[in-house]
Amino acid sequence: MFRKFEVENFMCLKHVTFDLAPLTIFIGPNSSGKTAIFQAIKTLCALFGYPLRRGKFGDFTLEYGIGLDDLVWNRDSSHPIVFKVWFSDNESADPDYRIELRRGYQGWSVVRERLRSEGRTIIDTQERHFSFETSEGPKTYGERPWIAPLAYLTDRYKADPLAVSEIKPLQDLRARLGKTRRYRPSAGEISAFISTTAGTRRAALYETDDTGKGLALVLRDLVARDRDTFTKIEKELNQFHKHIEGINCKTDWRGLGFFYKTTRSREDIPARLESDGVLLTTFLLWRFYSAAAKRENLKVCLEEPENAIHFSILKQHYGLLKRFTEGNDSNVQILISTHSRDFLNAVGSRSDVYKMVRVIEYSPANGTVVYNLGHYREIDHLMDEFREQVGDLWWSGRARRGSEY
């Protein structure tokens, strides 16, 4: 779980540092940097699954058609992109992990990695090369830029008895970073019928895309391999929406889709005919229950979770999100961006608002700035501003002066 994150020269994030709670709520105007923060965390985790250069397929791409040349600050590829992560609550100025990327004539490369453990530096490719013995002979990394982080490059040796002890810290790092998924759920995409051709099924079997498309595939898979988790989803869905009795996955001429058993119809109805709120609730329940069942180390970046949800059940949704991040055994961290005063009101507890909310602003000179609420009186001021006129909060700068009220 990330406790603090720092990023330089990524999208509108020129140089920003912020701390993270297990459940963190980012609020700010459009184009202030909320999505950029999510993309930065997603990019860092993606680096550990793919090389930066992939031969004939071109440079590393975060999404189709989006590469690091598009993501660097001001689209100026002379800038390095730097990510720093703290995994614990210590006050050390030195991050637990740092990675720096630069663009050369061959494309983007890793030019420096530094990994610390228990207060000491165990790997720093700028100060010394990373060397270890393998059954194939000695291996050394660090004398030139590399196409991926060391954890990716050394993965092939993780079962080598001569190398395993040396590369274990890198494999531990990879596990601690985990996976990051960014979602902007769309009811239409969630409920869409999916082609069941082999290629599509392989690509989407265990995941959906950012919009939620592919939910029918993952639900069908969940029924087959983990019926208990599927049943938990059905039961909790009924707690949110009393008329929903269950979920079925069926294939017809349209492809694979899912259907709801309801108290309002003798026959199962296609998901597309249910309300957007029911679809979004189904998606959230799948995401968090399936992650918990697999003990998956997962960061979920969720954009505008209040969409299509009636304010009367927003508090239940907030309770769901909080429940899956509470406790020392939780492997799920949730980051939310919202513009909704109703969602902030649904948080309810002033203590939760104080601990979880991060305010985001943007200036052309310095890029995005993220700051915590500074005083409990600022919470009341913030909530009043949300009730009165949410737009004025950002452009007047009054959120920063909350302690004066």
Give the secondary structure arrangement, pairings included.
Elements lengths: L3 E7 L2 E7 L3 E5 L6 H14 L13 E3 L2 E2 H4 L9 E6 L10 E8 L2 E11 L2 E5 L5 E5 L2 E5 L8 H4 L10 H14 L1 E5 L3 H4 L7 H7 L10 H11 L1 H14 L3 E9 L2 E8 L6 E2 L5 H18 L4 E6 L7 H13 L8 E7 L2 H7 L2 H7 E7 L3 E6 L3 H13 L1 H7 L9
Parallel strand pairs: 3-17, 3-18, 12-16, 16-17
Antiparallel strand pairs: 1-2, 1-6, 4-5, 6-7, 7-8, 8-9, 10-11, 13-14, 14-15, 18-19
Helix pairs in contact: 7-8, 8-9, 10-11, 13-14
Structure, briefly:
With 405 residues, the chain is an alpha+beta fold.
Keywords:
single chain; 14 helices; six-stranded mixed beta sheet; alpha+beta; 405 residues; six-stranded antiparallel beta sheet; disordered C terminus; 3 domains; 19 strands
Describe this structure in words.
This protein has 405 residues and is of the alpha+beta class. It contains 14 helices and 19 strands. The strands form five sheets. The protein has a six-stranded antiparallel β-sheet with strand order 2-1-6-7-8-9, with helices on one face. The protein is globular, with a radius of gyration of 23 Å.
User: How many helical elements?
Assistant: 14
- Uncertain segments: 198-205, 389-395, 401-405
Counted beta strands: 19
Radius of gyration: 23 Å
Assign an overall shape. globular
Tell me, rounded to a whole number, the average pLDDT. Answer: 86
The largest sheet has its strands arranged as 2-1-6-7-8-9
Largest sheet properties:
6 strands, antiparallel
Structural class of the secondary elements? alpha+beta
Share of helix, binned: 25-40%
Number of domains: 3
End-to-end separation: 35 Å
Proportion of residues in extended strands: 25-35%
